[in-house]
Design goal:
Chain A is an alpha+beta fold. In chain A, 28% of the residues lie in helices and 28% in strands. A four-stranded mixed beta sheet of chain A has the order 1-2-5-4, covered by helices on one side. A four-stranded mixed beta sheet of chain A has the order 7-8-10-9, with helices on one face. A four-stranded mixed beta sheet of chain A has the order 11-16-18-17, covered by helices on one side. In chain A, helix 1 packs parallel to helix 8 and helix 7 packs parallel to helix 8. The chains are: A alpha+beta, B alpha+beta. Chains A and B meet through helix 1, helix 6, helix 8, strand 17 and strand 18 of A and helix 21, helix 23, helix 28, helix 29 and strand 32 of B. Chain A: Keywords: Nucleus, Ribosome biogenesis. Chain A: This is RNA 3'-terminal phosphate cyclase-like protein. Chain A: Part of the small subunit (SSU) processome, composed of more than 70 proteins and the RNA chaperone small nucleolar RNA (snoRNA) U3. Interacts with BMS1.
């Protein structure tokens, strides 16, 4: 399959790896002053190479053309130095998609930036993606994301451990009822700044959220010494849990040192709380960052009907849907659900329905 | 045979059991047992342990019966059941098929050629396939058969083919197998007949399973089997149930019953060997088939499907089921390869070829290549044919929407000498005009059509929006490969920008019937609907943010383009539709107005879809095509030399945009405002709950259920709210609500009550298994319902083509031999491949040589495997796993043990079974299946190693250190092995220490003992073996007709040598020579004198000299008797011999006497016994009579008493 441009770079490679179809991407930033693949993309390719066996990668001189022939997902113990241009979330999102389909359970140690403003952070994925994966039958004690060291942008220095068991196939899901939010949890973290920052964030965030629900608890997490990375920063991750086990998350991180205006912790807390409200407004059974993950797992399920209620589709998800159609010939039935007259449950929801591709993990060994 | 003495039982002499026995023996009688043991009660627990054991056992047996519950994925209208009739030649296969067909359809089919599909009952269709005696066909058909009728010639007995086929079946998931014994009339003797039957039956049972069904067809009557027997067999077939098999439920497949070559005749004329485009027809089975997927055609190879479309069922089940049996019209027969029931395309009609229902008009036997000939013989050009086929597709697709009942008009075909039933459809007249409707059929066509429509539009109207530019650009960029397909005589503009291309297809279908006014109404409605949707997306544009952006871009672009017309969003969308309106109007004028109710229906359907699937799907799937074409559009050449490299436009930016999954919120919500905040109030538990989940309502319901209760703590008595109070409260509401609401409420309440009841009483013994089963059932229900009411055209896009559909699969670039060497007697199967199953890699498998195959297999000898859909030749490497997990290469497979095998072959899911044959050409081995096994693992690298011994010789020996040479060649090699352990042949262990400078490759090593110069030192190491990358699909279908079973691939080394007459020159040392053993000479043992002295006498060497000659003085003289003495001695001798003779005689006499006596005695004894017996008998009889008398008298006495 041929693509152009570096847009949806991860999606294409991940889907190619899962479907076994080779991919050629041309014109990667060919018009740019600095053409070709960026360091973080190269790092991503290297990570894929580490978790697979027999992958063939060809990149031309300028880095504007990439040919990728996927191998078999191998898994095992992997250690990867992620490029600091993007945070670990960038790499972790792809690993989340691949991890259940490995030959041996994955145990990846990723080093780099744990939190930055562009990508979903490790904390957010930990509180939202992991419970989502459990719904698809990926559970057991092996499934875990652990922040060993926290490293803020730009210098990084963080370390994250991700372990995931392997599965033969995914369970079909029916997530149509998000349920009502019963509690809000969160983590306010600060590294290489005053520990007081975290407390200030907590107070401001609570001031907004308290108007909705009293059950709020925000942990403060101040890391010191070796586990505090190389740059200062602070941030807040909030997650709202519903009675049906849906997790909606939001996060805000302070601007990296030397890039843009510094933010006050109070503002940050408030912004994050508002982001969470926005997320609640969008609603659905899966939050906006994990839409594509859930759709992928639905696609790779058995040949049964899966349903998921999502909030409005993000542009990334829309692209992802198109790619799923290209790689797996699976189209989703998309139904919009308008909110009722008198119920006040946020905006429009989208009900995604599909029949799974009957995918089974061909990498796993049987004895 | 001599009988071996069996080992006798050994009594235990020690241990608890022996002790127990001893104790028993000692005590003589058993000790007084307690009453419970002496007199057990029938159903009470004797021993808790035994009880537990029996319980466990019953549970084990119970759970063993469980199968893992699977989701039931059988479609509502299942495809015909594939019945493969198999057996060695001349056993009566064709006769049986013919008889069965006659039994079911009352039609006669003289030549069984390719699959024959018939309607056998109200809910079942059957496809009969005859399996010829080629192992290729046997393998292929075993993979698709649902039921195998295994014909066995009883007069001959079982043949190897039967067992081979059974083994093939076993590997690929066991279909149902039913044995049929034929040629039973050859047995004249009834006894031998029944004996043979029994013998064959029991053998069959051991092969299949105990109690497998075996049918007896006793004899032929006028060349046919007896009607009653065939009828019974038919009944068995039509009620048979089938288990789902794993491979088939996870892969789609088509057993092609029709093949057509679509290649341009011109291309064939230019190059007769050009690749062909072929369309294959058949029922889809297994699972959903996706368009553009990869398929494997066993015997040909892997191909990607160009296009799939579904056709109306050529052999449909009866629509309404009310009668008890099918009538003659419903007993359809479809066998296009045999030239029956096939559709023959004419310019604008379809002939369904069918003999009439009576046997009197028999069809003549046709040549087997009839189809091909008919293809060659047709006069129409391919384009015309294509167009025609489109037409027919359209007709059917229209028909699907409506009732599926073509009108019949009979015609007498003089050429064929039989009646033909022309299928005439209600709106046949129209279809010349609106060919375009065919585009509803396939997505790709649709797109192209759409594109062309756009072009036309532009030409006509000159109205251009940017979007359109993009689209046309895409078309120009698109390869013109498939243009040929859409050359339809007339093009009708479709809804180029209607909300959904999928809906459009439906519109297209229905539009011919719609009247103009309604069309307009619809447009209006659509507009009205579109507007609010747009508006609503204003505040929370997150949902359609991209769309909006696009729209805005378009708008701005149109402004820049200077079209002059600044259009609103709506207007930018609608000019085309207006065009369509006008065009449609023309169409409608042509078509005339008709069928108001149909139009009504169509409108309704349209509106429903409009509501159900608004813009979003188009946003996701519809606009993909637009993105790539910017380039070509942008790069206008300036003066033919320079390209205008514009600053990157929005689209371009998107191609290189940041790859980030985060969904940035828009800032339209100000969460500080109260009303914005209240918009999500209900998302929290603190908010308002739904009616049915609200705590208050739930409480109230509970009260209604349970009535009044007393609070024990306070002593307060709560009365259930009396009806009138309730009513008083709800009275105004009740008035407002209809009866229906009330009814619903009541129903709801009932349901809840029932649920509660179930939970209380049923779920007590619900096991995990039950739960699982229920879950599966629910899933199956959902799977069925989800897309039930969706139109097939759209449904196909969501689900893929579902099993049971009759599909047409177009495959480009098939080798020309497929067409030129086409033989309908060989099955053509399209096996769908899952994702990444089209790739090739290393497969690790567990393999066992078949017990009946008479030779073991050699590593690196090519072997033909049947794995998944495929048959291919490959070179396996056999290995065995050592205790430490090492895979050690084997030269040959073990005799009766599993071993591992690694091959280079197609990626196939683990757990898939395979079988191996050494050759598919001819029958060389007595049993052709060489090995069977299962795939364990897939990998891109191999881990097999073989043992490598490096040998060296010491050239200098110090105490425990030696210098070794000859093992390596360079210092570097030694460096790599530093620290490795080595050993001598005599068993002295050591270690490599360091390389020596000279000679190169020599090293210093230490040993646990001093070496000798004659010692040989070796190093045991493992060398990775590489698997040869041979993957050679068996292309038996491409062989010329009649030679299809002669496919020969790569030859083995042995065959090559045999064929080329090469003989190996053996190593001289390996040859056997007569063993010549020299007599060994041992030196005498020499013990020093000193030592001898010190030794005790026992150990002193005894000087045993040979005895010399006895000296004369010691020799004794011989005795010489005197004559008198001689006489005496002679007399004594004579006397003694006389005495001995007398004695002997007397003893013999005595012996004889004694024998006589014994005989006499025995006789007497026997007599005595006899007498005694009689005596005893007498006494017993007397006793018995006495007893009886006594009893009688006592009874009498008793009766008297009464």
């Amino acid at each position: 399959m041929e693509f152009e441009g570096c847009n949806c770079f991860r999606q294409r490679l991940v889907l190619s790896t899962l479907s076994g179809k080779r991919v050629k991407i041309r014109n990667i930033r060919s018009k740019d002053d600095n053409p070709g693949l960026r360091d973080f993309e190269a790092s991503f390719i290297r990570l894929l190479d580490k978790v697979t066996n027999g992958t063939r990668i060809e990149i031309n001189q300028t880095g504007t053309v990439l040919f990728y022939q996927p191998g078999l997902l191998y898994g095992g113990s992997v250690e990867h130095e992620c490029n600091v241009q993007r945070s670990i979330g960038y790499y972790l999102e792809a690993l989340l998609m691949l991890a259940p389909f490995m030959k041996t359970p994955l145990r990846a140690v990723l080093k780099g930036v744990t939190n930055d403003p562009t990508d979903p952070s490790v904390d957010l994925l930990k509180v939202t993606a992991i419970p989502l994966m459990k719904k698809f039958g990926i559970d057991g004690d092996g499934l875990e994301i652990k922040v060993l060291k926290r490293g803020m942008a730009p210098a990084g220095g963080g370390e994250v451990l991700f372990t995931c068991p392997v599965r033969r196939s995914m369970k079909p899901v029916h997530l149509t009822e998000p349920g009502k939010i019963k509690r809000i949890r969160g983590t306010a973290f600060s590294v290489r700044v005053s520990p007081q920052m975290a407390n200030r964030i907590v107070d401001s965030a609570r001031s907004i959220l308290n108007k909705f629900i009293p059950d709020i608890y925000i942990y403060t997490d101040h890391m010191k010494g070796a586990s505090s990375g190389k740059s200062p920063g602070f941030g807040l991750t909030l997650v709202a849990e519903t009675v049906n086990g849906t997790f909606l998350g939001a996060e805000v991180v302070s601007t990296p040192q030397g890039q843009g205006d510094p933010v006050l912790p109070e503002d940050l807390g408030r912004n994050c709380a508002k982001l969470l409200l926005e997320e609640v407004y969008r609603g659905g059974c899966v939050d906006s960052t994990n839409q594509s993950l859930s759709l992928l797992y639905m696609t790779l399920g058995q040949q049964d009907v899966s349903k998921t209620l999502l909030g409005p589709l993000s542009p990334y998800t829309v692209e992802f849907l198109r790619h799923i159609r290209d790689f797996f010939q699976i189209m989703f039935k998309i139904e919009q659900q308008k909110p009722g007259e008198d119920e006040q449950k946020g905006g429009e929801k989208v009900l995604m329905t599909c029949v799974g591709a009957g995918y089974s993990n061909i990498n796993k060994t049987i004895k | 045979m001599e009988k071996k003495e069996q080992k006798r039982h050994q009594h235990k002499h020690s241990g608890p059991k022996a002790d127990k026995k001893n104790r028993k023996k000692e005590q003589g009688t058993e000790p007084e047992r307690d009453e419970r043991k002496r007199n057990p009660r029938a159903f009470s627990v004797q021993s808790a342990v035994r009880m537990a054991k029996t319980f466990h056992r019953t549970q084990d047996i119970k759970t063993k019966k469980h199968h893992i519950p699977l989701v039931d994925r059988t479609p509502l209208e299942p495809p015909p059941v594939v019945v493969v009739v198999m057996g060695p030649p001349k056993v009566g296969k064709s006769t049986l098929i013919r008889c069965l067909i006659k039994n079911y359809t009352r039609q006669k089919l003289s030549d069984i050629c390719g699959p024959v599909t018939i309607v056998s009952g109200k809910k079942r269709r059957l496809t009969f396939i005859e399996c010829n005696n080629d192992i290729n066909s046997m393998i292929d058909l075993a993979k698709v058969a649902d039921l195998v009728l295994m014909l066995i010639d009883a007069s001959f007995g079982f043949e190897m083919e039967t067992f081979e086929f059974l083994n093939i079946c076993q590997v690929h998931g066991f279909p149902r197998v039913m044995g049929v014994l034929t040629h039973l009339d050859t047995f004249k003797n009834n006894k031998t007949l029944s004996k043979t039957k029994k013998r064959l039956k029991h053998r069959f049972w051991t092969e299949v399973y105990q109690g497998a069904k075996l049918f007896y067809l006793s004899g032929m009557v006028y060349g046919e089997y007896q009607t009653q027997e065939v009828k019974n067999l038919g009944r068995f077939i039509s009620v048979m149930k089938f288990r789902p098999l794993v491979w088939r439920t996870s892969h789609p497949y088509v057993v092609a019953d029709r093949m057509e070559d679509l290649t341009d005749p011109e291309d064939i004329r230019l190059n007769p060997k050009c690749d062909r485009t072929v369309s294959l027809y058949g029922y889809l089975r297994g699972t959903f088939l996706k368009n553009k997927c990869q398929v494997h055609i066993p015997g040909v190879g892997d191909f990607s499907v160009a296009d799939v479309s579904f056709l109306p069922d050529p052999c449909p089940l009866p629509e309404v089921i009310k009668k008890r049996a099918l009538n003659v019209k419903e007993r359809l027969l479809y066998a296009p390869m045999a030239g029956v029931g096939g559709l023959v395309y004419d310019k604008d009609a379809v002939y369904i070829d069918m003999p009439s229902g009576h046997g009197s008009q028999q069809q003549e036997v046709r040549p087997t290549t009839e189809l091909v000939q008919s293809l060659i013989g047709t006069q129409a050009t391919l384009d015309a044919k294509m167009a025609a086929s489109k037409v027919t597709c359209l007709m059917f697709s229209v028909l699907i929407v409506r009732k599926q009942n073509p009108m019949e008009s009979r015609e007498w075909d003089e050429r064929a000498q039989r009646e033909r039933r022309r299928a005439v459809f209600a709106d046949e007249d129209d279809d010349d005009d609106d060919d375009d409707d065919g585009d509803g059929e396939q997505e790709s066509d649709e797109e192209e059509d759409e594109e062309e429509d756009d072009e036309e539009d532009e030409d006509e109207e000159g109205v251009t929006t940017l979007k359109k530019h993009d689209k046309t650009a895409a078309e120009t960029a698109a390869p013109p490969v498939k243009k040929q397909k859409c050359e339809v005589p007339m093009e009708m503009p479709a809804f180029a920008d209607s909300d959904d291309e999928l809906e459009k297809s439906e519109e297209d279908e229905s539009e011919e019937d719609e009247s103009e006014e309604e069309e307009e109404n619809e447009e209006n409605e659509e507009m009205e609907e579109g507007e609010p949707a747009k508006k609503s997306s204003g505040p929370d544009s997150g949902l359609c943010s991209e769309d909006d952006d696009e729209d805005e871009e378009e708008d701005s672009d149109t402004d820049e383009d200077g079209d002059g017309t600044v259009k609103s969003k709506m207007s930018s969308k609608h000019p085309e539709e207006e065009n369509i309106d006008t065009d449609d109007a023309e169409m409608e004028v042509q078509n005339g107005h008709n069928l108001e109710d149909l139009a009504q229906k169509a409108t309704e359907a349209y509106l429903r879809h409009q509501l159900a699937a608004p813009n979003l799907r188009k946003l996701v799937y519809g606009t993909v095509a637009e993105k790539e074409e910017d380039d070509s559009n942008d790069e206008e050449e300036l003066g033919g030399l320079f390209k205008v490299n514009r600053p990157e436009k929005s689209k371009k930016v998107r191609a290189d945009a940041m790859d980030c999954s985060r969904f940035q919120p828009d800032n339209s919500h100000d969460w500080d405002q109260e009303e914005v905040r209240s918009s999500i109030r209900d998302c929290f538990v603190t908010g308002k709950w739904e009616e049915d989940k609200d705590a208050a309502t739930l409480l109230k319901e509970d009260e209604e259920l349970y009535g009044d209760f007393e609070d024990l703590e306070t002593g307060q008595v709560h009365k259930a709210k009396t009806g009138n109070k309730d009513q008083a409260e709800e009275a105004p509401q009740v008035k407002l609500d209809d009866d229906e609401v009330q009814k619903n409420k009541r129903l709801e309440k009932k349901r809840r009550l029932k649920e509660r009841f179930d939970a209380q009483y049923d779920d007590g013994d619900a096991t995990y298994f039950d739960d699982l089963k229920e879950e599966m059932q629910k899933q199956a229900e959902l799977n069925r319902q989800e897309f039930e009411d969706v139109d097939d055209e759209i449904r196909v896009q969501y689900e893929g083509f579902r099993p049971g559909m009759y599909v047409r699969v177009e495959i480009p670039a098939l080798p020309c031999e497929f067409v030129t060497n086409f033989d309908p007697h060989y099955p053509i199967i399209l096996g769908g491949l899952g994702p990444s199953e089209g790739n090739v890699g290393y497969l690790q498998m567990r393999l066992k040589k078949h017990r009946w195959h008479n030779r073991i297999l050699k590593t690196r000898d090519p072997l033909i495997l049947s794995l998944g859909w495929r048959r291919f030749q490959t070179i396996p490497l056999y290995y065995i796993e050592d205790h430490n997990g090492r895979h050690r290469l084997l030269k040959y497979t073990p005799e009766h043990m599993h071993c591992g095998a690694t091959i280079w072959g197609p990626i196939t899911p683990q757990g898939t079974g395979f079988l191996a044959v050494q050759t598919v050409g001819g029958i060389k081995a007595s049993f052709r299946i060489a090995a069977t096994g299962v795939v364990l693992d897939l990998d891109k690298s191999v881990t097999i190693v073989k043992k490598l011994k490096l040998i060296g010789y010491p050239y200098k020996i110090f105490k425990n250190t030696s210098f070794i040479q000859g093992m390596f060649n360079t210092v570097l090699e030694v460096a790599k092995f530093e620290g490795a352990s080595i050993r001598t042949v005599s068993g002295i262990k050591g270690q490599i220490k360091k390389a020596l400078r000279t000679p190169p490759g020599a090293f210093r090593a230490t040993f646990e003992d001093r070496l000798l110069m004659s010692d040989i030192v070796f190093l045991r190491s493992w060398y990775p073996a590489s698997v040869p990358q041979l993957y050679n699909p068996v292309t038996s279908l491409l062989m010329p007709v009649g030679q299809k079973e002669t496919w020969a691939g790569m030859r083995t080394l042995g065959q090559l040598k045999h064929d080329l007459g090469i003989r190996n020159k053996p190593n001289q040392d390996s040859l056997y020579k007569p063993v010549v053993r020299q007599v060994r000479h041992f030196n005498p043992l020499h013990i020093p004198k000193e030592l001898q002295k010190a030794l005790p006498f026992k150990n002193k060497p005894k000087q045993m000299q040979a005895k010399g000659k006895t000296p004369r003085d010691l020799q004794r003289p011989a005795v010489v008797r005197e004559p008198h003495e001689k006489k005496v001695a002679a007399l004594l001798d004579a006397l003694s011999s006389v005495y001995a003779y007398k004695n002997k005689k007397a003893r013999a006499e005595q012996h004889a006497k004694h024998k006589e006596f014994l005989k006499q005695k025995e006789k007497q004894e026997a007599e005595r016994q006899k007498r005694m017996k009689e005596e005893r008998k007498k006494t017993y009889r007397a006793m018995g009579q006495k007893e009886k008398k006594k009893l009688k008298s006592s009874l009498k006495g008793a009766s008297k008493d009464n």
